[in-house]
Amino acid sequence: MLERIRFLTAGESHGKGLLGIIEGLPSNIKISETYVKQHLSRRQKGHGRGGRMKIEDDFAEFIGGVRYGETLGGPIGLQIKNKDWENWKDVMDHNIPEKPSKPITMLRPGHADLAGLQKFGMNDIRNILERSSARETTMRVALGSFCRKMLEDIGIEIGSRVVQIHNIKDIQDIETNQTPNQISNLADKSPVRCINKSKEKEMMAIIDEAKKQGDSVGGTFELIADGLPYGLGSHSQWYKKIQARLTGLLMSVNAFKAVEIGSGNEMSSKFGSEVHDEIEYMNNRFTRTTNNAGGIEGGMTNAQRVLAWVSMKPISTLVKPLNSVDYLTKEPKKAFKERADSCAVPAASIISESMMCIVLADAILEKFGGDSMSQLKMHMNSTAKY
Fold first, then answer.
1. 93 vs 23, higher pLDDT
2. What is the rounded CA–CA span in Å between residue 45 and residue 48?
3. Element holding 261 (H helix, E strand)
4. pLDDT attached to residue 315
């Protein structure tokens, strides 16, 4: 569903590292490895993360597409090395070892194990779980950082905050005059990325309880984008609708199960007169009295704040495993246990920011064009409507 930008990732969770490539971005985006590292570090934090994050210190090395701190307009290549590879060399060897590791055959409910083995004709779950792991999203954050920097340079901000973990909800509305960056900065100060301090403690407590029980918890977070012009996306074809593009990319992330735009599900139980945002004209521009649409109408941005709510299920790997079956013997057994987080909702919100950055950067380039940042800014200055 992306029109101008393409990206690919490669690599396994416990392999040598991750590779990424993104193309379609203009030249002269000012960026550094330090800037990308900043957002990779945000992804690694969060109460409830497992032991893996204590091992890794994620750093994206620029392999191509950047010179003297600016993009060149061609494909951009990145590499992130896995420090944990040193502990998995024998298990993840690219060559045929003298003593292969024992196949993993105890299927894990909620994972890609069973469907993946059936699809690819394999009998070792390791061949599936390594690529289906959320470790892959590390590279997505790195690649999305290039799009984020492009958006920042044209006055567009993306932020997020956690609003629910398990059954603990933060129903406190954010101030309308708070920018996405301000909201994210507040959230980043919290171990669970919740800006409500009383709810923060309750969320941490439920995560601790889940960990104690060998269990996991999911949750919901809010994505926010400001500074968008009218008309990103289009009503003219199904695949051009901006909400389809945004939800499609968000739902490609591991464990994400639902995306709501604006007031979302709440609107299904209300009258039309209660949910549609009335239009006013003030100070030489159209405005709205509310934003139930979440900044999107008819498949296009309407120059209001874009709001999305994303819900993820609990992590599927449990320290206290569920009942399952051995793939080869078909005998009842407990599921295989792999090191995992008890909660990854805070990290997931950072990953989602990068997904939103990619979609919005793509839509900006589709609408306004430009091979360089100066051309893009010139086109937007002359034609963008807010």
1. 23
2. 9
3. strand 256-261
4. 94
Q: Would the pLDDT of 67 be above 80? A: yes
- What pTM was computed for the model? 0.96
d(CA 217, CA 133): 17
pLDDT value of position 18: 98
List strand residue ranges (DSSP E) for the chain, in order: 6-10, 17-23, 60-64, 66-67, 70-71, 76-81, 157-165, 168-169, 219-226, 230-233, 256-261, 279-282, 285-288, 296-297, 300-302, 306-312, 323-325, 332-334
Coil vs helix vs strand at 190: coil
Name residues whose C-beta falls within 8 Å of residue 82's C-beta, 6 or more positions apart in sequence: 11, 13, 14, 15, 16, 17, 18, 56, 135
The closest alpha carbon to 281, from 273, 289, 271, 292, belongs to 289
Q: What is the pLDDT of residue 2?
A: 95
Structure token pair of residue 129: 């779980």
Rounded to an integer, the average pLDDT of 277-302 is 96
How many other β-carbons are positioned within 10 Å of the β-carbon of residue 6? 12
Burial of 267 (0-12, 13-18, 19+ CB in 10 A): middle
Q: Are 259 and 308 in contact (CB under 8 A)?
A: yes
d(CA 113, CA 324): 11
How many alpha carbons fall within 13 Å on the CB side of residue 359?
30
* Residues in a beta bridge with 158: 225
3-state secondary structure of 147: helix
- Strands 256-261 vs 306-312: parallel, antiparallel or unpaired: antiparallel
Give the other-Cβ count within 10 Å of 288's Cβ: 18
Helix (H, G, I), strand (E, B) or coil at 293: coil
Average per-residue pLDDT for the chain: 96
Q: Confidence class of residue 171 from pLDDT cuts 50, 70 and 90?
A: confident
Q: Would you state the structure tokens that stand for residue 301, as one six-digit string? A: 């941005």
- Do residues 180 and 157 make contact, with C-beta atoms less than 8 angstroms apart? yes
166 alpha carbon, distance to own chain's centre? 19
The DSSP output letter for 30 is B
Q: Which two tokens stand for residue 144?
A: 């999305």
H/E stretch holding 248 reads: helix 242-250
User: How confident is residue 44, by pLDDT bands cut at 50, 70 and 90?
Assistant: very high
Total residue count of the chain as it appears in this document: 386
* Domains of the chain, start order: 6-383 (3.60.150.10)
* Coil vs helix vs strand at 279: strand
